[in-house]
Amino acid sequence: MKTKYFKVLESLDNVTLKLIIDAYKNGEPIAFPTETVYGLGVDAFNEKAVNLIYKVKGRPKDNPLILHIGRLSQLQEIVETIPEKGKILIKAFWPGPLTLVLNKKKNLFPKNIGMDGTIGVRMPDQLITEAIFSQGNLVIAAPSANLSGRPSPTIARHVLEDLNGKIWGVIDGGICKEGIESTIVSLVDIEPILLRPGSITQKMIEEVIGPIKIDDSLLSDYKVGVALAPGMKYKHYAPEGKSYIMKTRESNKIILKTIEKENVKKEKIALLIFENNKSHYQINVGHFFILGKENKLKEVIHNFYRVLRECDKLGIELLFIESSKEEGLGFSYMNRLKKAAKYNYLNKED
Ligand code: TXA
Ligand code: MG
From the CB of 144, is ligand 1 less than 6 Å away? Predict the structure, then answer.
């Protein structure tokens, strides 16, 4: 299959819009832009098409897909009721990078959608995507548009790196504004639970609905097996090289010792650091990547996956990645960094 490529400049012309809507209705998988990362979408009501997504991505079967809608009225088609706190969150953050887990409407979906009678749903903040889903009255089931385990794509080229020839089409809406996946909040129990941190932080949520619980799996490195969002327990977002999590302004001596121990050529080593700490690192390696400023984590998050993919392109075998504080956006950044590096901390005892 030759993957069709659609470049969106200001908007899509009506002919292309219809072509894409019809393809979705025929069960074709099409990658689309969102404000977080690119999604790989299919019609959520088409059981065969949903199965195909798992196959194309190599995704474990027990990991449910998020449903995406283009306008609010579509929500009634898929959920039983919207709890009060859900209404407040929707008003505050939709369209935007927040997924809500809600009780799904009875007997509505193919079996392979959702989990334990619940579904994750969100409305992306991306004009062209909103237009397609809304005009086509499409509810789109979509994971991130990467092969399972790889960093999520934040530009259309990344989607093609993983999926060219395997999907019907990709819609290029440019670079994703946020750069990491949506925040997920479950409203299934009385107490709301944060299942995945993203660019909408715990504090931003608590400002509108009061206290929320943090899923245990986010607080511990090793209890990942009990994650309420199944996707959070898998190896994720990982570059091909071995990655070390460094502390902020890590000691040069420790890094040098580790390089010696790993015995990797300097051309194949990269340091991923904050701009303000550049002069701290006096180490002769092939590649330095600036993720952004330590006090501008929005920038860091925006760049993180793209830089991981650049490292793969360069054949980097050893990565040292700088940590931030685990609060606010730093909690979300560190969540992705720990998974990318498989909880491999630079050994401070050496
Ligand atoms: O920003 C995003 O959320 C992107 C864009 C494409 O929308 N999507 C995304 O999808 O990150 P994916 O499949 O990579 O991650 C979905 C996460 C997984 O961790 C999955 O386990 C969880 O959402 N999830 C989906 N439905 C759920 C449910 N009913 N209950 C608990 N967790 C759920
Ligand atoms: Mg994903």
Answer: yes
